[in-house]
């Protein structure tokens, strides 16, 4: 079976390669889909450092370095959590850019957040972490794919906006 490459992943790999920047991710609801999307593109090894699958809340703290205080006060699905996931991915994987993805893919509401609520954090060098709250619709798989696509687009948009 031939893999269909995501146009957003192809564009992200090309953009990062041109700018000589590396990327890593800490993924909760996407459970590795973001990194897998990038890794499917030829040439990804020049820019993709790696990723952390932190589906369980305790792993967000232990592997990605999300503070226990943030997890207790804000919860695993929160703006601050996404920001700390992005910074943790960047730090742990020694990448220029870190991406954090956390949210609710379903089937039920989590921590007061309805299904489809997703927070995406992007940590760039010498810039504050940018976090976007998204609300997606569809199946679990649809929500997870939309999360990956939004994160890829967000990385490219921020690189352009901030002039990297």
TrEMBL record:
Name of the gene: cinA
Protein name (record): Competence-damage inducible protein
Taxonomy, superkingdom: Bacteria
Xref: InterPro entries: CinA-like_C, CinA_C
Pfam families, per the entry: CinA (PF02464)
Organism from which the protein derives: Lawsonella clevelandensis
CinA C-terminal domain location: 8-157
